[in-house]
Write a structure and sequence with these properties.
This is Hercynine oxygenase. It catalyses: gamma-L-glutamyl-L-cysteine + hercynine + O2 = gamma-L-glutamyl-hercynylcysteine S-oxide + H2O. Keywords: Iron, Metal-binding, Monooxygenase, Oxidoreductase. Catalyzes the oxidative sulfurization of hercynine (N-alpha,N-alpha,N-alpha-trimethyl-L-histidine) into hercynyl-gamma-L-glutamyl-L-cysteine sulfoxide, a step in the biosynthesis pathway of ergothioneine. By secondary structure, the protein is of the alpha+beta class. The protein has two domains: 155 residues, dinb family like domain (Four Helix Bundle (Hemerythrin (Met), subunit A), Up-down Bundle); 280 residues, Alpha-Beta Complex (paralog of FGE (formylglycine-generating enzyme)), CATH 3.90.1580. It contains nine helices and 14 strands. A hairpin with a 2-residue loop joins strand 6 and strand 7. The chain is globular. Bound molecules: N,N,N-trimethyl-histidine (AVJ) and fe (iii) ion (FE). The site of fe (iii) ion has 5 residues, from helix 3 and helix 5.
């Protein structure tokens, strides 16, 4: 696994170009795997009204790459200006995309390959300085992350797809001895640095670095598991309005929810459908495919709450021994297999108590990878935020409609995951690979 971080500042332009080429190549292999796994009919079909047809994601990846790297960075002539509108996510809702005169599977594959050829040419010639867009190859990093984000979206489409399994991957490692010992960790009150100004490929919403005071809080050492969630269900959690916000209860009643998405009851056991396989819900895995509302209701029932985004980030990266904020819970080094379940190496979360090498200085486990974690926070700009390079990446989504998720999932690539990375979605969404952990404010007696 690889990604580009602050060390890129010391790379020669040749080394930087080589690293970018490796990332582009690695990312395209994943897009090809996700789209080659099904036949043409399944590529153009809509598997859920929540998602685009896979063939839309593929050509959209090419279209963004053409606009930013071929036209803008490269200053080259447009290849397919006629299709800009079809692949503009703001022009057509996901539900409407199957009806558009989209490029077919072969055309889409040819299109992304042609764009990529031009991009390698641009990468070889374009100066990587002089304009903020190209400093440290930012535009290339943005496009790598964009493709990886759509690869995670395509993985979610695969999860929604009905039919026999087409994706295969080994299971993640088992929990480590003692790793399953769960509890809460205390993060003492005080300021820490949130966000980043040093990460060359950080996106606009992660910037700038700024000091934030956070009061004392306790946060779960591990994500909430399926076994935990069984208890919530068995206790009648889905039938008792007292645990739910008003908005959450309305949504629950309307959607008639009684368990996480993809679960079904069989006698007295819970089964789940996972990439086309029906299997018992494993008790020790982080719960996944729950909405913000379900996460919030569970936390209320448990006598806790969801962490704010600042709490989550402080628990994930603040090292009290140095007073500094790290790139990742384990330090500055890019994610390796031993740190976290990222990059679609496994098609499920690892059980809690895995990846001791990835623990944060706070003592919390599995903050990166496995499941995205819902936070209590609305998606909002940091003080000093500047939209860059386009308002439609983050700025147009700021406001109370979206909740922030942190940490990445097993479906997230390391290039699009770090302790500062911010994801967001509607609080009702469940098809994303989202779970949560709880937090609470300690009583005075607990601080002695
Ligand atoms: C950051 C995951 C919310 O998929 O809507 C992809 C990423 N932006 N294309 C999304 C994104 C433009 C975005 N999320
Ligand atoms: Fe996109």
């Amino acid at each position: 696994m690889s990604t580009i971080g602050p060390e890129a500042v010391d790379l020669s332009p040749e080394e930087l170009r080589d690293r970018v080429a490796v990332e582009l190549e690695r990312t395209r292999r994943r897009s090809a795997e996700l789209t080659d796994a099904v036949d043409d009919e399944e590529l153009v079909k809509q598997h859920s009204s929540l998602m685009s047809p896979l063939v839309w994601d593929l050509a959209h990846i090419g279209s963004q790459e053409e606009q930013w790297l071929v036209r803008d960075v490269g200053g080259r002539r447009a290849l397919r200006p006629d299709i800009d509108d079809l692949y503009d996510a703001f022009q057509h809702s996901r539900a409407d995309r199957p009806e558009l005169p989209l490029l077919g599977p072969d055309e889409s594959r040819q299109y992304v390959a042609t764009v990529r050829d031009k991009v390698y040419d641009v990468l070889g010639r374009a100066p990587l300085e002089g304009r903020r867009l190209v400093e440290h190859a930012f535009a290339f990093g943005m496009i790598v992350q964009h493709e990886q984000q759509h690869d995670e979206t395509m993985l979610a489409t695969h999860q929604l797809r009905r039919g026999s399994p087409v994706l295969h991957a080994p299971d993640p490692p088992g929990a480590e001895a003692g790793g399953e010992r769960r509890g809460e960790v205390l993060v003492p009150g005080g300021p820490f640095t949130m966000g980043t100004s040093a990460e060359p490929w950080a996106l606009d919403n992660e910037r700038p670095a700024h000091r934030v005071h956070v009061d004392d809080f306790l946060i779960d050492s591990h994500p909430v598991t399926n076994a935990d969630f069984f208890r919530f269900i068995d206790a009648g959690g889905y039938r008792q309005p007292c645990w739910w916000s008003e908005q959450g209860w309305q949504y629950l009643a309307h959607a008639e929810l009684s368990a996480p998405l993809f679960w079904q009851r069989s006698g007295d056991v819970w089964l789940r459908r996972r990439f086309g396989r029906l299997e018992p819900v494993p008790p020790d895995e982080p719960v996944v495919h729950v909405s913000f509302h379900e996460a919030q209701a569970y936390a209320n029932w448990a006598g806790k709450r969801l962490p704010s985004e600042a709490e989550w980030e402080k628990a994930a990266r603040f090292d009290p021994s140095t007073g500094r904020s790290q790139r990742y819970p384990w330090g500055e080094d890019p994610p390796e297999e031993r740190h976290a379940n990222l990059g679609q190496r496994h098609l499920r979360p690892a059980p809690v108590g895995t990846y001791s090498a990835g623990r944060a200085p706070s003592g919390a486990w599995q903050l990166i990878g496995d499941v995205w974690e819902w936070t209590a926070s609305d998606f909002a700009p940091y003080p000093g935020f500047e939209a860059f390079p386009y308002r439609e990446y983050s700025e147009v989504f700021f406001g109370p409609s979206y909740k922030v998720l942190r940490g990445g999932s097993f479906g997230t690539d390391p290039a699009a995951c770090r302790a500062t990375f911010r994801n967001w979605d509607f609080p009702v969404r469940r098809q994303i690979f989202a779970g949560f952990r709880c937090a609470r404010t300690p009583a005075a007696a607990e601080l002695d």
